[in-house]
């Protein structure tokens, strides 16, 4: 009996040990037990991202869509160098005519551009192609072509050139009115001539004005690295659409300090269409020298609050002169739209068509009055 009890105890111990191991390593082998369901994690993101091979977030889709449409632009022009001593009669007499004439030198520069139509139209900066005798365009696929200048607009620093090649890649325009601070952007260009390069950043600010870069300013500010050679290149959104044209940076060294500026796509499209259709951009012109109204000026003119634009001067024979505007007038509204400052006044007038009749509301001698004005055509030179 004692022997049977010993065998039973040993068998029970071994059975419990086997059951413990099975329950620990393979609980699904036990009757009535199933493996717990795997946890499913769903990640939601408002940013359009694509997954890379390693599973990390990537903007390769946006870059690959836009990069083929961004081109490198090489320009060349001939300049004449003249030493100031050549204007000295004694110096010229001493050297006879051996130094007669100016020395010609050919200079070159580089920049970037964006193909915006299958017809070969390319948008870039005016300062990239300004005064160029020759414009060469190199595509990302290795093709090259000589470009023809269609038109320039120095007041926005935009220009349109054209090449004739088949099967050209293009980039679509984005709706820049929906761009917000913090949105991810990519800058594509040819910095320092090293080749096509993509840098990433965010939108740091919108509607940047009064920077003294262009006459008409409404910049998108970004911290995406923009360096010399990036001018005229694309600033794209996370979808790969054209959000703006990179045009300038704030720098004390010539390199990127994280403050770059791009011309919004809406302005680019408007100027581009005008240049293609007319060869130039036609803007309205009033012919005044405006000045911001400070609190001190508002108090001295007995204006309740600092608003509008003070007329500091009037161009003789201009539409303003003909309509009766005088220095000391404060422009409060143009065509029913309030004038907040001189920049707002400039933009409102520029948006009007030449020969268009509008009413201008003024503050003069302590009271408001309205004058009808026939808008003129803005001269090609920079005029306030």
Automatic annotation (TrEMBL):
GO annotation terms (biological process): proteolysis
PROSITE patterns the UniProt entry points to: PDZ
Domain PDZ, first and last residues per copy: 275-353
Record keyword Ribonucleoprotein present: no
Keyword match rRNA-binding: no
Alphabetical list of InterPro entries matching this protein: PDZ (IPR001478), PDZ_sf (IPR036034), Pept_S1C_Do (IPR011782), Peptidase_S1_PA (IPR009003), Peptidase_S1C (IPR001940)
Alphabetic keyword roster: Hydrolase, Protease, Repeat, Serine protease, Signal
Gene Ontology MF term list: peptidase activity
Source organism superkingdom: Bacteria
PANTHER family for this protein: SERINE PROTEASE FAMILY S1C HTRA-RELATED (PTHR22939), SERINE PROTEASE HTRA2, MITOCHONDRIAL (PTHR22939:SF129)
Family of this protein: Belongs to the peptidase S1C family.
Protein name, as recorded: DegQ protease
Organism (species): Chitiniphilus shinanonensis
């Amino acid at each position: 009996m004692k022997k049977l009890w010993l065998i039973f105890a040993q068998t029970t111990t071994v059975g419990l040990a086997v059951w413990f191991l099975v329950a620990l390593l393979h609980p699904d082998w036990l009757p009535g037990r199933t493996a717990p369901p795997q946890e499913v994690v769903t990640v939601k993101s408002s940013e359009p991202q694509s997954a890379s091979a390693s599973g990390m977030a990537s903007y390769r889709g946006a870059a690959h869509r836009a990069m083929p449409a961004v081109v490198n632009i090489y320009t060349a022009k001939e300049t004449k160098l003249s030493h100031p001593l050549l204007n000295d009669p004694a110096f010229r007499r001493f050297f006879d005519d051996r130094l007669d004439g100016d020395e010609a030198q050919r200079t070159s520069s580089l920049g970037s551009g964006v193909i915006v139509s299958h017809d070969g139209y390319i948008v870039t900066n005016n300062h990239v192609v300004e005064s160029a005798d020759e414009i060469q365009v190199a595509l990302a696929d290795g093709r090259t072509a000589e470009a023809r200048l269609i038109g320039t607009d120095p007041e926005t620093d935009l220009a349109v050139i054209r090449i004739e090649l088949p099967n050209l890649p293009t980039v679509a325009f984005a709706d820049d009115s929906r761009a917000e601070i913090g949105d991810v952007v990519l800058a594509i260009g040819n910095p320092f001539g090293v080749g096509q390069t993509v840098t990433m950043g965010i939108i740091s600010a919108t509607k940047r004005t009064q920077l003294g870069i262009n006459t008409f300013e409404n910049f998108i500010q970004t911290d995406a690295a923009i360096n010399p050679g990036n001018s005229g290149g694309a600033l794209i959104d996370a979808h790969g659409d054209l959000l703006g044209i990179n045009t300038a940076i704030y720098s004390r060294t010539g390199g990127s300090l994280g403050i770059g500026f791009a011309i919004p796509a809406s302005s680019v499209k408007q100027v581009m269409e005008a240049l293609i259709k007319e060869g130039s951009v036609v803007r309205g012109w009033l012919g005044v020298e405006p000045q911001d109204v400070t609190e001190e000026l508002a108090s001295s003119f007995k204006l309740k609050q600092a608003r509008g634009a003070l007329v500091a001067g009037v161009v003789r024979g201009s539409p303003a002169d003909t309509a009766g505007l005088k220095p000391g007038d404060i422009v409060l509204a143009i065509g029913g739209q309030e004038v907040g400052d001189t920049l707002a006044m400039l933009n409102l007038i520029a948006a009007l068509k030449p020969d268009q009749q509008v009413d201008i509301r003024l503050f003069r001698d302590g009271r408001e009055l309205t004058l009808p004005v026939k808008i003129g055509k803005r001269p090609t030179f920079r005029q306030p």
